[in-house]
Every structure is written in structure tokens, then in C-alpha cells.
Amino acid sequence: PSQCDLFCSQNYPLYIRSVPTENELKFHYTVHTSLDVVDEKISAMGKALVDQRELYLGLLYPTEDYKVYGYVTNSKVKFVMVVDSSNTALRDNEIRSMFRKLHNSYTDIMCNPFYNPGDRIHSRAFDTMVNSMMMQVC
């Protein structure tokens, strides 16, 4: 099981995807509570975060069943990913790579002249990329 979410700087969701969908509410709660940890990490990094090109926040916190990872763009869009703790094949480099892939696809959406920044993301290409990435994780 895993979940992928994107939030704008005001913490409302731009995109949410869960695989499988049966525990979706539990995932939503986990992701929303992790936004506080993301904000804490951002404020703790302070100006150093602005100077860095790498915005991967790493493991936000582990639970008994899941690991929650975070990433923040330069424009303060937050990416949160929840993966099953039992998946020991996923290393930090793979998670970092998935966030880069998400960020690149998000950038493609932002470059679309028909997309209004801040609107929910409705893109078949983005859905396909996220689904393929999540199938690798499950």
C-alpha cells in the first residue's frame, strides 16, 4: 500500500492518489498529520533550504505500518509519500528519485498554459506516471 499527495503552500491538496483504495481515509489522516512535520523541517532548515537545490526532506516519521517521506519545491508545494514499512527494497535513493520524477511531472503540468496554479491536478499523463511509480512500490 502507498499514497502520493501534493499540497500547495496553504496545505490544501492538489493531487491525491492511493493504491489500494480501501484504507484511503487512514492514509489521508497520516498525510495531513505529516504536513506539520514538513513545516517543522522547513522552518528548522531556514535559509539553508533556500540555498539548496535539493529539497528532499527524507523520512518524516515512521509508524508501525508505514514510512512517510517528504519533499518541498522552491514554490513551497509539498509532496508527501507514504509507503509500507515492510517494503525493505526501497532505499533512500529510490525515494529521492521518485520525488524528482514527481517534481519533473509537476513542472510539466505547471508549464501547461491551460492549468491554473493552485487548482487540483487533472492530467492523464500525470496519473499514468504516478500509477506506474506506485505499482513499482507495491
From TrEMBL:
Main location: cytoplasm
Family matches, as Pfam families: Sedlin_N
Keyword match Cytoplasm: yes
GO biological process: endoplasmic reticulum to Golgi vesicle-mediated transport
InterPro entries reported in the protein's UniProt record: Longin-like_dom_sf, Sedlin, TRAPPC2L
Keywords associated with the record: Cytoplasm, Endoplasmic reticulum, ER-Golgi transport, Golgi apparatus, Transport
Similarity section: Belongs to the TRAPP small subunits family. Sedlin subfamily.
Protein name: Trafficking protein particle complex subunit 2-like protein
Location in the cell: Cytoplasm, Perinuclear region; Endoplasmic reticulum; Golgi apparatus
Highest taxon of source: Eukaryota
GO cellular component: endoplasmic reticulum; Golgi apparatus; perinuclear region of cytoplasm
